[in-house]
Design goal:
With about 375 residues, this protein is an alpha+beta fold. It has 13 helices and 13 strands. Strand 8 and strand 9 form a beta hairpin. Helix 5 crosses helix 6, helix 7 crosses helix 12 and helix 10 packs antiparallel against helix 11. It is globular and about 65 Å long.
Amino acid sequence: MEDRAALRRWVGLPYDLYRGVPSFVPQLRREQLAFFDARRNPSFQTSAARLFLAERDGEVVGRICGIVNSLETEKLGRKRGRFGWFESVDDQYVATALLDAVRDWLVDQQCVEMTGPHGFTDLDVEGLLVDGFDELPTISGSYNFPYYANLLETWGLTKDVDYLEFRAAAPDRLPLFEKLRKRYRDVDYEVRTCRSRKELKTYLPALWELLEESFEPLYGVVPLTAAQRDFYTQAYFDFLDPDFVKLLFNKDGGMVAFLLAMPSLSRALQRARGRLFPFGFAHVLGAFRKPETVDFLLAGAKPGEPTSILVAIGLIDMFDTLRARGVSFIETNHELEENTTVNQLWSKLELVSTRRSRVYRLGLA
């Protein structure tokens, strides 16, 4: 979107649409403007993208983004068109106009299917919330009104996959993990926790390689360029607290698994109202210093390694850190409903609540 004023209206719609909604977590406006700026976000170098804006009587009433990722096309052997960041007032006419526009554009791009909501990559926001509207999402999650599902399904989209999220009390003494600690105390794997962000950065190249290798078979995962890795490092990894990053190595010193978590910033971002200055920064800093809740972001293991064992070993160390830092609750990032390995581990905890998000699909003739 070349028109900067139009881009500001496009980015600004959720802040107006969800004003006063208790479960909406506003992202930082400056970061959102940078993300959708083709000159700053390297994802535009590997993807054709089109932003659509719906206005009525001079008022913004909806938006949507269409994406064709060339690296995904190479991986799948077919053109999958994506749509993301869909927002609309409760009006089927508006939603239909937006979805028609992005479908027609994807057909022009010779796509054979249309899926979404999701972004350029699996590291972007994905999925439409279909259950858990009263629960606060993580900062990598999203919120939408309950009527959104009806707008998409009435238009003709059907379920492709679902993602699940959980919240649980941080275990003080959990018999399962005490058993695991005894079971795996003699295994040839070492858990490392970095002492500083500077030390953590020395592991980032290996961590990125392992992250992509372990996630490659999963739904919606696309390869990343070096420029994209740098972009996401600055956007996400630079904000990680080293205490909540667990790296696992085999006896030969090779990185074989990881668990990434971070203090929850959802309440802080709500208080900041989408802006770091003048007071938003203080709220974010406070959330880092004394986290009541920690968001579990990503976990993975090298293909061929015992994933469930490695994740369990990492969790043992992570729970020790949670107790030491006085953390009361953990929130999981979305997990594929069919990811039984991780979901079975979470099921051992005392779950407090769940959220469910959905990615939809439409075949394109």
